[in-house]
Amino acid sequence: MLKGSLVALITxxxxxxGIDYVALKKLVDFHVExxxxxxISVGTSGESxxxxxxxxxxxxxxxxxxxxxxxxxxxxxxxxSTSEAVELTRRAAQLDVYACLLVVPYYNKPTQHGLYQHxxxxxxxxxxPQILYNVPGRTALDMNNDTVADLSRIPNIVxxxxxxxxxxxxxxxxxxxxxxxxxxxxxxxTTLAFIAEGGHGCISVxxxxxxxxxxxxxxxxxxxxxxxxxKLNGQLAPLHAALFLESNPIPVKWALYEMxxxxxxxRLPLTALSEKYRDQLRDAMAHS
Length: 288
What we know:
By secondary structure, the protein is α/β, with parallel strands linked by helices.
């Protein structure tokens, strides 16, 4: 089980929308140097919705190659088409990724029974560790605790990224899903509380910008040093808020551009961060 701060890595792009692999290598090295505990390649923050299957697989493969065994790489392979998610997961599994992250299907709004069948089918089709991803703010559908508990009994479904911000769920996951089921917060602002209730870490947007602080905060929380964790989280709190002033990954890509790691590239329908939010994000970055 991976514990700690896992980064939901952005996909650096040229201004014409092409993939900037030189910048990707810089980002991978940046996270290795700053003790990030794992990389998620081509998740929501990686603009998976604007990439075709071949592009997603190429980016995942390059990320694994650049990581060179120094840091685990988890591939984002979810989708609202079960057959497409199977194809992505199968192809990613051939790239020596640590696991795959599978989002709740978006837009088509299946029933809880449909969700169970979707994830069960992918797990049975591809023999690789798989992590569920529940983010109702993006998918317009909440995977309930009963469905998570049922899915946790499938041997290669090994954890969940819960981005609901509902800390009351953690205790139920702990009691119903078993000690070996990994629990990751997908909500940076509530990560400390999530870990304090029994979670194992986070899959973080903030870690793109402040990787060492996120690693240290998670490590302190996991070790039970809540005083230190609270102090570090206080430094991070303005960044947690500012990175969601507009839809993710708009602010985080702009922040990394300001830091000199990436170019301005972002794919439509996403656009660059609005001028009115830039000073607020700069201030948050200065405090972290």
